[in-house]
Amino acid sequence: MHIDVDFGAAKSVDQVRVETSRDHAKARLRLETQDTSDRWITLAENPEQIDIVPRGSTRRAVTSELRTRGINYLLIADGDWGAQDMRDDPEAWGLDVVTTGWGTTIYKVVP
Question: What is the pTM for the complete model shown?
Answer without folding.
Answer: 0.56
